[in-house]
Design brief:
This protein is an alpha+beta fold. The chain contains nine helices and twelve strands. The longest helix is centred in the N-terminal third of the chain and has 55 residues. About 5% of the residues have low confidence.
Length: about 450
């Protein structure tokens, strides 16, 4: 077989496309990574804030038994100093303020904050809103690299404002943690992006193999068509030139006959090419119907009987079984029979035999076409259904385009069947075709 290759222009086009696919994969990964990291950042940030608020609310519940503030700012409670007690630092520290906004009670140290609580509290902005609300207010303040959640709630006795509580919870170096997360992700992303590019380049190369094969097949197809058309046109031209050079015009009739033969060949070739073009484009669809396959086979054999007689070949049709109705596309089944029988007659020996046997059972149709021709070499059998492929031995025996069996193979596969060939050089060839006798759906 001819060795195919990719042209430099096609190679550059495919390599450019391969790089675009690889970089596209990498860009998609980068966008995905940014989205994931961004969502992770927001989720963690929300989690830290929720944890801080939950801790402060729980601390307020735990100290709900403490006495309420006295309404008189000059009371003994209001003059109590800030207190610090206990060896273990609490995670939440609460300060209480009287109605005048003066600190009444609270610790000055909290877990996770290396400076005094008095650096953060009181939060005057929140404290000023407390006499005018019954709701809790929240704020996140920043001290150097530390983020602190501040919660403030008013203390009321009926309609009388007694004061407020402000609690803090240190979230530590939240921004540093987030920045570290981003830094680690950036470092890992660089490595992963490089791996993605390499993997995507390799994967896109494998994905482009069908395209590369299609381009190669298209180029080979054009070359084969050009070759097949050039041969009959050359014959026609030479024949007509010889006829014109013959002064006695004795060879005109032969020239006309030869030309008509070549025109017939070109017509068949163009018809086969049109069929393959419709197959490749997907516009050739099956139109199944119920018909008598024995009658169809009789019609095909009758049509080919003159050709068999001309070539001194005995053509026989055998019907087996009582079932004769099948559901398939009769037009394509007729074409299948014509292709197989034409080959059986074309490549047969003089006074040879060509037998067609059809058996229909409840599940399958069995079609066998057997001849006593020269046979096909074993090396040619795997390539027999390839387009334009012709065995060297058959090329010497009869002209042909090498498209018939490719079309026959498509017809059988379109009917969800199989086609097999057995051949022995010098003894003949046998094609066996099977397909379901009833179409699905």
């Amino acid at each position: 077989m001819r060795r195919t290759f990719t042209s430099p222009t096609e190679a550059r086009l495919l390599r450019r496309l391969q790089w675009r696919l690889a970089l596209g994969f990498a860009l998609a990964f980068v966008v995905f990574d940014i989205v994931v990291v961004g969502l992770t950042y927001e989720v963690l940030h929300y989690h830290f804030l929720s944890e801080a608020k939950t801790a402060i609310v729980q601390a307020w519940k735990d100290q709900s038994h403490l006495p309420r503030l006295a309404p008189d700012p000059d009371s003994e409670l209001s003059r109590a100093p800030l207190t610090v007690h206990g060896d273990e630092l609490p995670r939440v520290v609460t300060w209480r303020f009287n109605a005048a906004g003066t600190p009444v009670e609270g610790l000055n140290t909290v877990y996770g904050l290396p400076v005094a609580v008095s650096t953060i509290l009181p939060d005057r902005a929140l404290l000023r809103t407390m006499p005018n609300t019954h709701s809790t207010a929240w704020a996140v303040v920043k001290y150097q690299q530390y983020r602190i959640m501040v919660g403030s709630r008013p203390l009321w006795q009926g309609s009388r404002y007694l004061g407020a509580e402000q609690s803090i919870y240190s979230m530590g170096r939240l921004e540093s943690v987030m920045a570290g997360l981003l830094a680690v992700d950036a470092e890992l992303s660089v490595v992963v992006v490089l791996l993605v590019i390499v993997f995507a380049f390799w994967l896109s190369g494998r994905s482009l193999k069908p395209i590369r094969l299609a381009l190669t097949r298209q180029r080979d197809f054009i070359q084969d068509v050009s070759h097949e058309l050039r041969t009959p046109l050359t014959i026609v031209k030479s024949t007509l030139e010889l006829a014109l050079a013959d002064k006695n015009r004795s060879g005109v009739d032969q020239a006309i006959r030869s030309t008509l033969q070549e025109v017939d060949y070109v017509t068949r070739l163009i018809g086969d090419l049109a069929t393959l073009a419709r197959i490749d484009s997907g516009t050739t669809l099956l139109e199944p119907e119920v018909f008598d396959i024995f009658q169809l086979a009789d019609e095909v054999v009758t049509a080919l009987q003159p050709l068999a007689t001309e070539r001194h070949i005995h053509l026989h049709l055998n019907h087996e079984g009582s079932e004769r109705l099948v559901e398939a596309d009769p037009v394509h089944i007729r074409q299948l029979l014509l292709i197989l029988l034409d080959n059986a007659l074309k490549y047969n020996r003089p006074h040879g035999e060509a037998d067609v046997t059809i058996l229909v059972d409840p599940k399958k149709v069995h079609l066998t076409v057997e001849d006593t021709g020269s046979g096909i070499p074993e090396d040619d059998l795997p390539h027999l259904f390839e387009r334009f492929y012709r065995s060297r031995t058959t090329t010497r025996l009869a002209p042909g385009s090498g498209l018939g069996l490719a079309i026959a193979d498509w017809i059988v596969r379109a009917h969800r069947g199989v086609i097999r060939v057995n051949s022995q050089v010098g003894r003949g060839t046998k094609f066996v075709v099977e397909w379901p006798s009833r179409s699905e759906g």
